[in-house]
Every structure is written in C-alpha cells, then in structure tokens.
Amino acid sequence: MTDAVRRAPERSDTGPNAPMSEENPWPLRVVSKKIGDWIARLGEVWTEGQITEISHRGRTAYLTLRDPSAEVSMRVVDFTGAAASADPPLRDGAQVVVRAQVQWWDKNGSLSLHLREIRQVGLGELLARLERLKKLLAAEGLFAAERKQPLPFLPYRIGLITGRASDAMRDVLKNARARLPAADFEIREVAVQGPRAVTEVCAALAELDADPDIEVIVIARGGGSMEDLLPFSDETLCRAVADAATPVVSAIGHEPDTPLLDYVADWRASTPTEAGKQVVPDLAEEQRGLNISRTRLRQALNALLTREEDALAAMRARPVLARPQSMLEPRAEAVAHLVHRMRTRVETRLERSVDDLEHLRARLRSLSPQSTLDRGYAIVLDADTGAILRDAADAGERIRVRLAAGSLRAAVTEKEEG
Q: What range does the domain containing 245 cover?
C-alpha cells in the first residue's frame, strides 16, 4: 500500500456515550437511536388534519393525515382498532382530531404517529370554528367594503379557477361567451375539494394574480355539502384572496352556500352561472343601450335645432330686423333737431360776441392816444431816449414830435417853463 492511501483511524470506543468527532463519528445506528430517544420525549400529541388515504392490513389501519393549508402530511398507524370502530366510518377528506404517540422507526429512519384515539370533527364544531374565524377576519378588516376593488367593465383577459372538467367551468364559460363572444379566459383546473384543494387553489390564484394581462379572477365551484365546501372557508385561502392585487369573484355553490371566501372576495356571485353574467358586459344589451342613447341624442339635437330656428325666425320677424332703417329714422330726426338747435345757439352766441367786440373796440378807440392825436394834439418825445416829455426842463437839444399822421424832428432853441 502506498503512502497516498490513508489508513482509517482506529476507534477505541464507538458506543452511544462515546465522544463524537471527525475522527470518531457515531455509527448510523447510534444516530438513529438518539433521534428516536429525542422524539420519544415528545410523548403523546393532539393534532388535526384531513384524511387523504385509508388502508387496512389485517387489524392494522394505515392513514395519511394532511394539513389542508400546507404541503405537510404524516403517516398514522393504528394498532388499536380505533379507526375501524369510528362512527360514522372514516373516509377520504374527513376532518379528524387524533391523539397519537410519535414514533421513530430506526431501521429505515421513518417517522409516524401511532394512533391512540381518533374522532371526527362534528358539524357543530366546524360551524363554531368557522364563526370564530369569520369574526377574526372581520375584525382585521378583510370583509370591509372600502377595501374591495371594482370589477373592470370590459376585462382584457379573465382568470378562471375551477374544478377539472366541471359543470361550474362550463356554466361560467357558456354564460360569459353568450353575453360577450370575444371573452378571453385563462383557465386553471384544480382540486376544489379534499386535502389538496386549498394548496392548488392558492397556487393557481398566485399564478393568475402575477399575470399582468389578467384583469379579474373567478373562483368557481358547483354545489356540495358543507364538508365539500370547507376549503373555501380556509384561512390561508381567504388571506390569499384578500392580498390579491387583481379583483376576485367568488362563485361557490348555490345561493344558500356562503363560505368565508364570499365575504373576502371583491364580488360575490350566487352561482357560477351568475359569475359568467357579472364578469363581462352583455354585448347585445350594450348595443341596445347605444342605439337608445343615439336615438335620444339625435332627438335632442333636432329639438335644439328646431328651437333655435324658431327663435331666429321670430327675431327676423321683428321690425327692427325686418326694416332696420326704421330704428334710425327717429334718431336721425332727433339728431337734425339737435344740430339745428346747436347752430342757432352758436349763431346767437357769435352775434352777441360781435356786438360785444364792437362795443369794446369803440371804447378802446375812445381811450386810445390815437384819438387824442386825431383831435389835433401831439406827443413830444426825447429824440435820443424816445421817452415822452412832460416837462420842458427835461427836453434835450433834439426832440421828436408825433402827430396824428406822421412825426417831426426838431431842434430846441428855447425852453419856456410854465
């Protein structure tokens, strides 16, 4: 053997109490036994779920118990005969509460529940649980009208979650396409009862809600017993519908059936048939409505035009529009009269002003020095300064004499003081 081959370390102690390490690992049987010891400490447990499978081998019964809201299931083994003696007899889909001992089978590393007691959840208890859940969801506001979304008038594409090849699917498609032949559906066929219903419906809802072309989602199922409709009152499904961004229509069962999904959904249809009618508009009815509206609009426009034409004819018939000059003639006479009065007054004022001017001219002439000169008087001025001389002593050697017509220049030869 070469040096490249490592020798396995020698184990001096491989018991369950031996220290564990990389060099001294526990054997698988020890690990399995320790897991069994840890699980045994759990003791008996009470749990609830739905039965998805029942089989018998002799006096031993084997059941598969599944959580209806999750992908979790466990095998239940009954050595006591409790499952066989259950009244009413157990069947697939039954909701049960079991008391069991958790067991670890260390030979193959499997976990199971060993049945000690089993009882089916009665109708009264189911109703009480649903009522408690209803109050809880209502208190959280999941039923509030203000959070519900309106349905689109003409959805581009409709999501449909329903049973495989079910009557509910045919009812929705038939009634929707009877109203709108071009209605486009994206269908998801899922389990609508039993332990897989909640998981499959939630998965289909999430897938359709993520599609931007889907504008409304219909969840449809035909009638059935209360137990058959239980998945549509499941808390997980109700919360998924409440969180959906796309409007959701609930069409579960018939008119009396009211699962909690009806309260959470944005719109409740009493039946799948009703859902097909509500999710799309009636093309024929819309066309009739358009024709009626068109007729009313035409009648209203004709009435408006007739009324306006009558009003225009009445206005044209009035004298002021039939003979517009009739409105100007009396105004022209008034203007002519005013012009005549204005001219008369202006002429009177002018004549009066002319007379006043003549009087003023006469007074001015009477007071003018020229009048004095015209009577034979003269004005003597100093020849150098042009000042009027009033005293002989003020006269220089030369003077100028102004007469009524012309003037004279003279030399002063002698002054006489008077």
A: 127-281
Q: pTM for this one?
A: 0.52
State the pLDDT at residue 69: 67
- Whole-angstrom Cα distance, residue 20 to residue 259? 56
Residue 381 to residue 113: CA distance in whole angstroms: 160
Q: Compute the distance between CA of residue 68 and CA of residue 194 in angstroms, rounded to an integer.
A: 8
In this structure, the chain runs to a length of 418
Q: Please check whether residue 255 lies inside any domain of the structure.
A: yes
- Which parts of the chain have pLDDT scores under 50? 1-12
236 and 302 fall within a common domain: no
Q: Which residue reads 């931007």 in tokens?
A: 212
> By the 8 A CB rule, do 220 and 162 touch?
yes
- Decide: 224 and 244 in contact? Cβ < 8 Å: no
**Burial state string for 107-129 with b = 16 or more CB within 10 A and e = fewer than 16:** eeeeebbebbebebbeeeebeee
Q: What are the E-state strand segments in 238-385?
A: 248-252, 267-268, 379-382
**385 and 306 housed in the same domain:** no
What integer pLDDT is reported at residue 125 of this predicted model?
A: 64
Other beta carbons less than 10 A from residue 377's beta carbon: 12
Structure tokens at 400: 């100028």
d(CA 74, CA 44): 15
Residue 4: CB atoms within 10 Å: 5
Query: What is the CB neighbour count within 10 angstroms for residue 218?
Result: 29
The domain tally of the chain equals 4
The number of beta carbons lying within 10 Å of the beta carbon of residue 190 is: 21
Residue type for 351, please? E
Q: At residue 301, what are phi and psi to the nearest 5 degrees?
A: -65, -40
pLDDT digits (tens, 9 = 90+) for 13-25: 555 566 778 778 8
